[in-house]
Amino acid sequence: MAKKPKKQSGGTPATVALTAAGTAFTVHVYEHDPASLSYGEEAAEALGVSHDRVFKTLVADVDGSLTVAVVPVAGSLDLKALASAVGGKRAAMADPAAAERTTGYVRGGISPLGQRKRLRTVLDASARDHATICVSAGRRGLEVELAATDLAELTGAAFAEIARPVP
User: Fold this and answer.
1) Using one digit for the tens of pLDDT, what is the confidence trace for 40-75?
2) Alpha-carbon torsion 74, 152, 89, 62, what sign?
3) Full-model pTM
4) Where does 25-126 show beta strands of DSSP type E?
5) Rounded-to-integer distance, Cα 50 and Cα 31, Å
6) Which of 100, 97, 102, 109 minimizes the C-alpha distance to 65?
7) What span, in angstroms and rounded, lies between the C-alpha atoms of 86 and 61?
8) Of 12, 26, 70, 161, whose CB count within 10 A is highest?
């Protein structure tokens, strides 16, 4: 019988998954301001990282199936493009409680990695323009930096143009 990997103390499911996979990553910690209106913008500013390199994890409902969309903070999710990317017809933002329950993370700290239930994932194609990107490490005030190709491999994500610029 195979032994279960030991859970690291102090880590989040996202960082535990990265460590278990042997993936190169860097953890960035910042002081989360509960009054912040945008978790992603707050992370980019606190870390001094360009808004097009910090990606937010959004959960959408595509034809009745929860789907993860990872898009740059500098943009917004194009729901039609997300639906098309996964062969669906209609997409809407998921109910926040359902997203939290399914991923095991709280809103503003949802990571595409180490989710309670692995969801179909789409990563915006712009992620490939950068050597590394930052995504939530599983809690507010904690980001993980890694190569987009590593993120896609670990989550089974497809790359597609699912973001549009914020006006």
Assistant:
1) 888 999 999 999 999 999 999 999 999 999 999 999
2) negative
3) 0.91
4) 26-29, 55-62, 65-72, 75-77, 91-93, 120-124
5) 18
6) 102
7) 11
8) 70
